[in-house]
Structure formats: structure tokens, C-alpha cells
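Postdoc handover notes: sequence design on the structure in folder B. Input C-alpha cells:
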């Protein structure tokens, strides 16, 4: 979950160049005829800020749908090189789920249901495998108008929206992590929840926090929290300060407060029993010369 600047691509120009390329006889006739209506829909998308409840798609023929989706999937043409560039110049953090390795592009309005925007740069966002796990999820309850949020147009991702509640057993070997919402009165809370349920959770955030990050914390606390490795025995207050520093580092280096590592650290800072465990565990670890206990 990361707010991104709107791409500066000239989509009308890309479309005109694509439809003017006589070498692409298999796709051009259909695209050429519908060029103006597609350009109108590009404006509609920007005007409605990619909000799936407000955008009214045109009825698109099967032939045009096929042309647009083929154009996106093949994207061999120079006119669509910008799509490859968008995919190649990816960020560290997935704009849709907040996980890592956003090595593909996701259509915010899925191309199978909204083909008019299949090659529209403002509908393409860098994403990880959550793209596949999400499927075509887009709109939730029509009464609340819940929907998938848009990394280019929605501002909700600019503030910290989610944290985690960590439950453990007595020896802290077992852990359960649940996502919690930090701003229950946010005007977009229904969409935030819909987005988290359908994209972030399906992408495996709870497994990553409760297995990958928690195991690292238990087995190598010095590697799980930045700065802890070089230190000897510490008070709980000092460990809390180090976690706060690490949180600030993660927030800033990832460019979003809603990246998965920050969500974990923020959850620890708000779990007194976990903080006490980390202190005790780290100090025991130091006494034992770095051997897991
Ligand atoms: Zn993702």
C-alpha cells in the first residue's frame, strides 16, 4: 500500500501512434475506429480519479476487447514501450499490498472487465504477485461503496492505516498475528478494509509477519531489529527506542508507512508483553553468546 505519483505518460499520443501503425494490421482497424471513444474514456478515468463506482464503462465489442488486451499482453510495439519501462523501473515496495518485489503491473480496473483501460498508464500500477491473488476483486458492498483503493489517486495510503495484533503463548514460540485498523473513523475506512481483505491479506501478510518476521526475531533478534546486533544487554526502554528508530528507517526507506516490516514493528511497539519478551530474549541471547535459547 503505497501512494505513487501519477505517471506523466501521454496516453492519447501512445494510442494515436498505435492506431496509426499500418504494420499492425491485425489490431489496428478496430482500435482506429474506436480511438476517440477510448480517449474519452481516458478523460473519464482521470476525472473520476479511477474510482470504480463512478466510472461508467462503455459497452466494448469482443473484437475491441481482444485488440486492447492483445496490445497490452504482447506490447512488442514501440508505441507501447512505456508499459515495459513502467514494469522494469519498479519500486521496492508493492503499491497495492505493501509487500516486496513489485515486478509486475496490476490493472487497478481489471482488463478483463474494463478493457478500455488495458493500455492506459494511469490504470497500471507496480505490483507483486498480489496481482494474481487479487483476481478481479474491485468493488464491495454497494451501500458503503467499498472498493479497491488507487495508488495514484487515493490519499489513504499516505498515513499509517494498519498495524498488527500479536498474540503468543507463554514461551513465545507460538504466535498469531492479526491485522488491525488504526483509523476506524477514516472517511475511506470501508474501502481501506475492502482493499486489505482482498489484496493485502490474500497476498499473505499474516503468514509473513507470524512466520518469517517472528521466526527471525526469535532466532536472530539482533538481525530482526536494526541496531540491536551491535549492542549488549539492554533495558526495555532502550530496546523500544531501537525499534522506534527501525520503524522510522523502514517508513522512510520504503516511502510508505504501510509496508509490511513497518506494520510488524508498529505492532510490536504496541504490545507490552512482546516488548518485555524481546528484552528478556535479547539479553539471554547476549549472555549465551548469541546462541538461540
Ligand atoms: Zn503486492
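Designed sequence:
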Amino acid at each position: 500500500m503505497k501512494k505513487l505519483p501519477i505517471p506523466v505518460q501521454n496516453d492519447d499520443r501512445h494510442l494515436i501512434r498505435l492506431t496509426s501503425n499500418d504494420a499492425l494490421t491485425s489490431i489496428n482497424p478496430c482500435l482506429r475506429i474506436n480511438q476517440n471513444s477510448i480517449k474519452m474514456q481516458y478523460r473519464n478515468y482521470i476525472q473520476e480519479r479511477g474510482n470504480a463506482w463512478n466510472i461508467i464503462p462503455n459497452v466494448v465489442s469482443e473484437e475491441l476487447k481482444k485488440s486492447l488486451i492483445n496490445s497490452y499482453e504482447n506490447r512488442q510495439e514501440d508505441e507501447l514501450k512505456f508499459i515495459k519501462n513502467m514494469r522494469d523501473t519498479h519500486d521496492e515496495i508493492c503499491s497495492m499490498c505493501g509487500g516486496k518485489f513489485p515486478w509486475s503491473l496490476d490493472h487497478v480496473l481489471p482488463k478483463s472487465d474494463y478493457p478500455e483501460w488495458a493500455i492506459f498508464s494511469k490504470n497500471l500500477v507496480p505490483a507483486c504477485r498480489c496481482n494474481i491473488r487479487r483476481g478481479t476483486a474491485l468493488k464491495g458492498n454497494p451501500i458503503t461503496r467499498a472498493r479497491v483503493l488507487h495508488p495514484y489517486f487515493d490519499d489513504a495510503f499516505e498515513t499509517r492505516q494498519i498495524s498488527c495484533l500479536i498474540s503468543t503463548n507463554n514461551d513465545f514460540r507460538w504466535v498469531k498475528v492479526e491485522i488491525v485498523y488504526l483509523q476506524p473513523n477514516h472517511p475511506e475506512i470501508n474501502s481501506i478494509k475492502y482493499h486489505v481483505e482482498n489484496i493485502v491479506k490474500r497476498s499473505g501478510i499474516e503468514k509473513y509477519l507470524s512466520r518469517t518476521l517472528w521466526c527471525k526475531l526469535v532466532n536472530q533478534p539482533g538481525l530482526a531489529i536494526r541496531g540491536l546486533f551491535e549492542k549488549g544487554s539492554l533495558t526495555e526502554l532502550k530496546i523500544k527506542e531501537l525499534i522506534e528508530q527501525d520503524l522510522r528507517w523502514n517508513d522512510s526507506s520504503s516511502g510508505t508507512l504501510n509496508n509490511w516490516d513497518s506494520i510488524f514493528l508498529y505492532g510490536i511497539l504496541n504490545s507490552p508483553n512482546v516488548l518485555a519478551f524481546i528484552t528478556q530474549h535479547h539479553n539471554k541471547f547476549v549472555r549465551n553468546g548469541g546462541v538461540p535459547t
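Context for whoever picks this up: The mean pLDDT is 91. Don't rerun without checking with the PI first.
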